[in-house]
């Protein structure tokens, strides 16, 4: 997908309609000193919003796309945000996740070709109680990518179990689901 011409206004509209922020915020269970990695943050909504919840921690917005990174940097500067790190990097090349207490994938994980590789790297470098949080399209949802690209709730559970992660909780939304795992 070409993200330089991506319609972020449409993304915002869909997020507000189908993924209520209050639900996400509560589900994440952020603590003031958490270090959150937001993988593939797109327009940066979550990264730019969640920094307020971690005043003694950090949020790292990691995206390979230059346009996305530049937009988030503009938001960081406009908001004079000190605890937001903006990184133009491919998640598939990250080898150490020990700095993060939470890793957040919102409608991103299904697009990654390196899922197994990064899950193996995460399980080997996470500290105790580190959490991975996913928001994904339900397999049967009429919105989002084609069904063959979507990951069903059970498929994600099976993948995470195969890599040694423990299921913590799940919440269903209208067209999406959220799941949390730990080591």
Shape: globular
How big a fraction of the residues is strand? 15-25%
Radius of gyration of CA atoms, rounded to a whole number: 15 Å
Structural class: alpha/beta
Determine the fraction of residues in helical runs and give it as a percent range: 25-40%
Q: Can you count the beta strands?
A: 7
Strand order of the largest sheet: 3-2-1-4-5-7-6
Low-confidence stretches: none
Mean pLDDT equals: 94
Span between N and C termini?
A: 32 Å
Main sheet specs = 7 strands, mixed
Number of helices: 6
Order of helices and strands: HHEHEHEEHEHEE
Give a verbal description of the structure:
It comes from Oxyplasma meridianum. The chain is an alpha/beta fold and 183 residues long. The chain has 6 helices and 7 strands. The protein has helices at 8-18, 21-28, 45-50, 66-78, 115-125, 153-162, and strands at residues 35-39, 58-63, 84-88, 102-106, 131-137, 166-172, 176-182. The chain has a 7-stranded mixed beta sheet, with helices on both faces. Helix 4 links the parallel strand 2 and strand 3 (84-88). The longest helix has 13 residues, at 66-78. The radius of gyration is 15 Å and the shape is globular. It starts with 7 loop residues before the first helix and ends with a strand.
Task: Write a brief structural summary.
The protein is α/β, with parallel strands linked by helices and 183 residues long.
Chart the SSEs and their pairings.
Blueprint: H1 8-18, H2 21-28, E1 35-39, H3 45-50, E2 58-63, H4 66-78, E3 84-88, E4 102-106, H5 115-125, E5 131-137, H6 153-162, E6 166-172, E7 176-182
């Amino acid at each position: 997908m070409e993200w330089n011409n991506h319609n972020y206004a449409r993304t915002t509209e869909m997020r507000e309609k189908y993924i209520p922020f209050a639900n996400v915020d509560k589900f994440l269970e952020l603590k003031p000193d958490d270090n959150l990695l937001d993988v593939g943050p797109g327009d940066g909504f979550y990264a730019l919003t969640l920094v307020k919840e971690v005043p003694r921690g950090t949020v790292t917005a990691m995206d390979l796309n230059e346009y996305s990174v530049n937009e988030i940097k503009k938001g960081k500067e406009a908001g004079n945000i000190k605890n937001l790190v903006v990184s133009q990097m491919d998640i598939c090349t990250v080898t150490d996740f020990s700095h993060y207490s939470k890793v957040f994938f919102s409608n991103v994980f299904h697009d990654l070709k390196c899922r197994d590789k990064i899950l193996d790297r995460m399980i080997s470098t996470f500290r105790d109680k580190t959490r991975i949080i996913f928001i994904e399209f339900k397999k049967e949802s009429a919105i989002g990518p084609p069904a063959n690209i979507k990951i069903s709730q059970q498929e994600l559970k099976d993948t995470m179990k195969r890599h040694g992660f423990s299921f913590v909780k799940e919440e269903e939304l209208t067209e999406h689901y959220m799941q949390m795992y730990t080591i």
